[in-house]
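Our preliminary data section would be incomplete without showing what the modeling component actually yields. Below, a chain of 149 amino acids is followed by its predicted structure, encoded as tokens that our downstream tools consume directly.
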Amino acid sequence: MEAARKRQLHVLAKRISELATMQDRLLNAYLASTVDEATYSAKSAELKSETLKAEEEIETLNGAEPLDGDLGLRLFDWSQNVAELWLGSNNSQKREVLDLLCLNRAMSDVSLVLEKRKPFDFLAERQKCQSSRGDWIRTSDLLTPSQTR
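Predicted structure:
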């Protein structure tokens, strides 16, 4: 994961360098009267915007904490000790445990429904969208033979 972050940082740094070079070439073209002022202003603003986006992405990547390799083990240990934690906790701690354990809860008409769900079940439950308008042109019926005149 760290290698991917470093690669992405390298790509972004290269992109910022390319954008600075483009900005310099655009300025030289403007000074040589090859590009008019309106085109120069528009393109310059676009390049500055792209540079700011790349710099923000670098800041985001640098601020992101690397994943803890021990996180899965700690989560498993917590899940094994959650019953003991429940018995020795106050109401606010019990609420936090419920919030962590009951992520797959839903409200029905009259009550709270707790259900075990696979992570991507909600994709299968979403409404189906029609890929066509439904006004097909019928050319022939495959179940009945074509009628001759």
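Residues 123 and 129 are 12 Å apart (CA to CA). The longest helix spans residues 2-31. Preliminary results of this kind motivate Aim 1 of the renewal.
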